[in-house]
Amino acid sequence: MSKLPSRESLFGRLWRADGIVSTAVFESWDYIKRSHSAYRSFLERFRIRGLKRVVIDLLDDGLTFGVMFCFLLLAYALPPFSGTGDVWNRGREYAVTFTDANGEIIGRRGIRQDDAIPLADIPPQMIKAVLATEDARFFDHFGVDVIGTLRAIIQNARANNVVQGGSSLTQQVAKNLFLSPERTIRRKVHEAFLSLWLEARLSKQEILKLYLDRSYLGGGNYGIEAASQFYFGKSVRDITLPEGAMLAGLFKAPTKYAPHQNLELARTRANTVLYRMLDAGFITQGELLQARREPATPIQQKISDSPNWFLDQAYRDTMTLIDQKGLTGDFVLEVKTTVNLPLQTAAQSIINEEVATNHDQYHITQGAAVVMAHDGAVRAIVGGVDYEASQFSRATDALRQSGSSFKPFVYMAALLKGYKPSDTIVDGPVAVGNWAPRNYTNKYAGRTTLLNAIAHSYNSVPVKLMLDIGRPSIIETAHLAGIKGALETWAPMVLGTSALSLLDLTTGYISFASGGLATQPYTVLEIRRSNGDVLYERDKDPNVAPKRVFPEETVAELNTMLNAVVKQGTGKRADLAFEPTAGKTGTNQGYRDAWFIGFTGNNVAGVWLGNDDFTPMKEVTGGLLPAPIWKRIMTEAERGLTPVGFAGVPYDETYAVAAAQLPQPIAPETVTDETDQARGADTDTQQADAGTGDVNGVLNGMFDLFETTPPAAAAAAAAAAAAKPAAPKREALVLPKANVDQQVSPRRKKSFLQDLFGGGGDPTPANEPKKKKKKKKKTLFDSIF
Q1: Nearest to 567, CA basis, from 578, 579, 555, 581
Q2: Are strands 534-537 and 524-529 parallel, antiparallel or unpaired?
Q3: Averages of pLDDT over each 10 residues, the chain, 785 residues
Q4: Whether the bond into 79 is cis, omega within 30 of 0
Q5: How large is the C-alpha radius of gyration of the chain?
Q6: Is the C-alpha dihedral spanning 648, 651, 652, 657 positive or negative?
Q7: Helix/strand/coil (H/E/C) assignment for every residue in 222-263
Q8: How far does CA 407 lie from the centroid of its chain?
Q9: 3-class DSSP state for residue 278?
Q10: Which of 142, 379, 513, 721 is deepest in the core (most CB within 10 A)?
């Protein structure tokens, strides 16, 4: 009988496992001991003793710590950029030269630089002068001049001062392109590593060209071409040895050795450069003596009256175009602009003269003006009275309440809704919630036409139009006209409470002057590289064409109304007489701002007067001073141009007669102006403006209230009225009502008491029967006012 299999106990299995582990550990330890013994036997062959061991240990430890130091240094000296993208123009500034339409230079913005001169065109003596003084071993080292650095350390140690630089020309390029001018060990390490990086990617000639074009050489000039033009008035191609030495001396300390600042010090530095050229073998002793006998003499710097306000705007427009059109990679540019330099000069002179003349009497400290063509081309910008004192442009950057000069957009919105200039409306009390605008005299004209309402700037009429057509339609109309500024949405906005710039507001009037075509102001016609390659031409830009936003017939209706402003309303002082003119006055609350915006068949212009601190002027309205200033500026703008009409107001023989009588001065006349100041709100009012606006003259006239008008004066006035030619029928654009001369009887003269307390006749339509009135004896006051 067979045996049954025995089952191993748990204790037996553990005992056997312990034996396996013990055996494995013993054998492993034995193997390690035998291997270690064999390794020691092997190393015994290389055992060294004595001095040899000390040297090898030192070398070994030095190599170990050296590798660690290199890794740490590499981490410390990582370049401050990724090395990708346009690294050569990293942090580079633009150098923009502006010209007029004829190519004449009018000014510069940004830095002064010109990198269009090839290295082959630069005279050898210029290059040798730079190498002799900055890096004579440039073509021999690998980016870091070790010998030159050691020599500089020794020389500086002997002199106990920094008398010699150790940076190579490549290191200076690295500093100019990528680093700041701070003097730190970290920057020096960066210089060394970046110089190696440059040498690996560029040739010696390319590095030298970068150095000659990007180094600062004083006077705002970067590069030897710009410096040569600035200091010697000629290209670096034509530079002489003494002039080249003087330019080369600027690389060390451009501000200190600038010849226009310290000529003697610049010549001393140039002599040092010449001797270094002699030591390097670049010139002979005779050439050195000749150069010292005929030292370089810089030209006299001309202080030109640049159109700075215009240049600031043109520079902004240029930067905008560069971003929009993707014109990256070029930093030295030439820009052809739209400026009319004689007009710019005349406009600046007129603003300065008028502000200076009226400063004390009317408390005016600032003024601004903008002139544009109908397509938006900016001809002149006057941003203030003194650019040196304040570069803030009140023409393009200041946001001021526009007052009644905003009203044409309200009337335009009404005309688009079906209103006509001949439609009648009541100038009377009106309220929107708690806001109840009133005229300055607290009197109203009663029933009147829209044409008469805008001509005399009645306040209640645009408010009533707003209640009928709604504020959104007015805001939409203003934006369609070209206004970019934010417009308020509350009721008083119809009277010009929105803050707009003069340029923005004047741009809106372009849509009226052009017959309904809206555009945006521009100053740039063309952008070129410094070598003449064209980068941008406005004539070939399909996105800048004016767009029709209003029907021409509707614009013509509005223009007849704006023409009435200068013919019979608040803007009579702006009437050119020899050419069709239209516009609108504006005065905001408290006489803080006074405006006149208007246009002819050729130009659109705006004028603003006020104070930077928002203090009120002394009752200056848009028709008192801005209107005649506008007239003077527009007369200059129209000089040499053929007078033409515009939609709704054609040019006819009456203007030709007036033009034939120029330049005879036009006698001042009485103007009824508006003041945009209501009780408790920003509104327009009407007030009589006598002759020159001299309040003292009005008071003096009180003493002669009852004096009769001399017969001779009355006869002269009658003769003048009889000699005035009748306005002929317009033929440019036939409209049912708006384009027909309004037959309104002349307004009856107001007495002094009526001027003070209101009242007075409203224009009576010609088709209404006239009431018989007793003839009133004229006083001297009536004859004056």
Answers
A1: 581
A2: antiparallel
A3: 61 84 90 88 78 82 83 63 68 92 94 91 95 92 82 70 72 86 74 88 94 93 95 95 96 93 95 95 95 94 81 97 91 96 97 97 97 98 96 97 96 97 95 86 88 94 96 97 96 96 98 97 96 94 95 98 96 95 93 97 98 96 97 96 95 83 47 45 38 38 37 39 40 34 40 42 39 42 35
A4: no
A5: 42
A6: positive
A7: ECHHHHHHHHHCCCHHHCCHHHHHHHHHHHCCCCCCCCCCCH
A8: 28
A9: helix
A10: 513
Q: At 729, phi and psi to the nearest 5? A: -70, 135
| Signed CA dihedral, 729, 731, 732, 738: sign only | positive
Q: In whole angstroms, what is the distance from residue 239 CA to residue 247 CA?
A: 10
Tokens of 415: 């005309």
Per the CB < 8 A criterion, the answer to whether 588 and 676 are in contact is yes
Report yes or no on whether pTM surpasses 0.90: no
Nearest to 472 by CA among 421, 430, 410, 403: 410
Which is it for strands 332-337 and 95-99: parallel, antiparallel or unpaired?
parallel
Q: What is the pLDDT of residue 4?
A: 56
Res 183: pLDDT: 72
CA distance 183 to 670: 71
Amino acid at 549: V
What the block records as the tokens of 464 is: 């009533």
Residue where the block lists tokens 């023989």: 653
DSSP string over 133-157? HH-TTTTTSSSS-HHHHHHHHHHHH
Q: Which amino acid is at 567?
A: K
Helix axes 552-568, 502-513, angle to 10 degrees: 110
Helices (H) and strands (E) in the chain, counts: 25, 20
Q: Please give the Cα distance from 438 to 459 (Å, whole number).
A: 7
Q: What are phi and psi of 652, to 5 degrees?
A: -135, -175
Structure tokens at 559: 């223009």
The DSSP line for 521-552 is: -B-EEEEEETTS-EEEEGGG-TT-S-EE-S-H
Burial letters 685-700, b for 16+ CB under 10 A, else e: bbbbbbeebeeeebee
For residue 4 the two structure tokens come to 């049954």
Cβ–Cβ under 8 Å, residues 115 and 225: yes
The answer to whether residues 655 and 580 touch, using CB atoms and an 8 Å cutoff, is yes
Beta 671-675 vs 603-610: how paired, if at all?
unpaired
Q: Is 296 in a helix, a strand, or coil?
A: coil
For residue 14, give the H/E element and its range: helix 10-43
- Residue 367, H or E segment: strand 366-373
- Beta-sheet pairing, 671-675 with 582-587: unpaired
Residue that the structure tokens 């941003």 belong to: 383
What is residue 393's predicted lDDT score, i.e. its pLDDT? Answer: 97
Task: Report the alpha-carbon distance of residue 53 to residue 55 in Å, rounded.
Answer: 5
